[in-house]
Design goal:
mainly alpha, Cytochrome Bc1 Complex, Chain D, domain 2, two-stranded antiparallel ribbon, 6 helices, globular, heme
Length: about 120
Amino acid sequence: MMQSWRKALLALICCAFASAPAFAQSEDNADAPGDAAAGKERFYTCVGCHGIPGYSNAYPTYHVPRIAGQNATYVVAALKAYRDGARKHSTMHAQASSLSDQDIKDIAAYLSQLKP
């Protein structure tokens, strides 16, 4: 019973991101800085876990970190690792899999300007 609930939740998350546009990054803007305003728009789905003080995930049980104020370079590296499968976490992989490099830089720019 619990396993089917988790599968349904994961499917819902994947569907939400499959329907979100993933914009291709051109060679011209490979070194462009992130746009915090665009990052705020892309971050809306992340708030459900990362924006709740003291939130713990139900399965597997762990504390979900608050990431406001995090270093942009770290956020970029972490999201790319989740997206590319180098960092293992099924929910984060599902969340990051639809993000382009520019989306990731935008989210990092937004998070880095927030107060922790």
